[in-house]
Each structure stands twice: as structure tokens, then as C-alpha cells.
Amino acid sequence: MSVKMNLTDTFCILKTSNRYSMKVILDIKDTKADFVMELLHSLSYVKTKPLTPYKAKVLQDVAEAVDEMRKVKSGKLKARNVGALINEL
Fold this sequence. Notes:
Elements: E1 10-16, E2 23-28, H1 30-41, E3 46-50, H2 53-74, H3 82-88
Antiparallel strand pairs: 1-2, 1-3
């Protein structure tokens, strides 16, 4: 499953309180964020933790890097050589 994120939106990590918990990232429009957060807080089995803009950006960058690696492995994208990568840095 691919997750697309926009830094202008509100991000939350949800964790259920059972032993085998699932974490979910939501991409919520700012206009609906208060409603969704209030709804989630009303569920005793859900814990929420908003992401900072920095953490959201890091998560987005990692998701893009993983997606790029999958494309390289499947042959849909050509890999760059290490020299080009170092020059970019």
C-alpha cells in the first residue's frame, strides 16, 4: 500500500491498545482535522499522536525513497551511479 502525504495536511499516528497493535497514518484536510481528532479521542481503544512537520517530511521522504527503490528493482527506473549521488550532496 502506498501512502501519499502533503505537508500542509494534519498527520496522526494511531495505535490500538491491544497486544497486536496496528499503526495507521492519516492524511486529513485541515478543515476536517478537529472533527476527526475529536472522533478518534472518543474511542477508548485508539491512541493518537500528531506528527511534527519535520517528522512528516522525513516520513514522506522515506516513502518516496522506498517507492523509487521498488521502481529500480522492477526495471521501471534506472539507478544512478554513486558519483552522481555524491555530487548531488
